[in-house]
Design brief:
By secondary structure, the chain is α+β, with helices and mostly antiparallel strands. It contains eleven helices and ten strands. It folds into two domains: 75 residues, Arc Repressor Mutant, subunit A, CATH 1.10.10.10; 134 residues, 2-Layer Sandwich (Endonuclease, Chain A), CATH 3.30.870. 52% of the residues lie in helices and 18% in strands. β6, α10 and β7 form a beta-alpha-beta unit.
Length: 265
């Protein structure tokens, strides 16, 4: 049986609370059971430092959420669920909630309120010209979402320049839009810096040839009219920031940079 401890590092408690969505008492009880292996109500109270009067409702909550299980008998004992299994259950729960939320958001477009929002946008005091639009986007997931949107609206050509590691991360998102572009006969140009064998693998995965390019930049140009530009360096990709701009001047400048780089290689 594992050696028990009545003291838990405060930093560990706070991190577990945040990562697993538990309160202080729930965290202490779960940690106690992980340390002990299995324990009675009295032992849990002693190890965790949680008042015995609260142990019952805390265990009920943890059992309901899949963190602990009860072993019937006299006295009744509780055992902690393996952290790996808890994480898998929480992931399933989060994905399910996200799917439900997405369905709700899709239905919003069918409401009268949504039509009013569209009308307000179209009847703005001052019409916004496309060349005036420049939007800052923070966060990798938000950038990927915006990238899929502008690529999905392409009519003639999409040029995506990046490095091989960033392209591999985007693969799952690109797979959702590339088949549609191919079907609509949109020209797709993918170029990335990195190892040649990596390019072969990602080309097979995406079904689109990835060209070699020695360019320290990440951007996407659509129809020569708009561009999505990653402004953070490769070394800080966890803090990605991008600019989405509808400007033919900027789009042409990036395309010229791309073509000139290919010529010089």
């Amino acid at each position: 049986m594992k050696k028990t401890s009545t003291v838990f590092d405060e930093n560990l408690i706070n991190k577990v609370r945040a990562q697993f969505g538990l309160n202080v008492y729930e965290t202490k009880v779960w940690l106690s059971l992980l340390a002990k292996g299995q324990a009675t109500i009295g032992e849990i109270a002693e190890i965790s430092g949680v008042p015995r009067s609260r142990i019952y409702d805390v265990l009920e909550s943890l059992e309901k959420e899949g963190f602990v299980v009860a072993h019937l008998g006299k006295p009744m004992k509780y055992m902690a669920i393996k952290p790996e299994l808890v994480i898998e259950r929480l992931k399933t729960k989060v994905l399910k909630k996200a799917e439900e939320k997405a369905k709700i958001l899709n239905k919003v477009k069918e409401t009268a309120e949504y039509k009013q929002l569209e009308l307000l946008h179209k009847q703005g005091i001052k019409p916004v010209q496309p060349e005036e639009i420049a939007v800052s986007i923070k966060g990798r997931l938000n950038i990927y979402t915006q990238l899929k949107q502008i690529m999905g609206n392409a009519k003639k050509e999409v040029v995506l320049v990046t490095n091989i590691n960033a392209l591999k991360r985007k693969a799952r998102h690109l797979k959702q839009v590339l088949p549609k572009l191919k079907k609509q006969k949109v020209s797709i140009v993918l170029a990335a810096s990195g190892e040649p064998e990596e390019k072969t693998n990602i080309s097979e995965q995406l079904g689109v040839k990835v060209r070699k390019i020695n360019l320290d930049a990440r951007f996407c140009v659509v129809d020569g009219k708009e561009a999505l530009i990653i402004t953070t360096p490769f070394s800080k990709q966890n803090e990605d920031i991008a600019i989405h701009i509808k400007s033919e001047f900027v789009a042409r400048a990036l395309l010229n940079l791309f073509k000139n780089t290919l010529k010089n290689e």
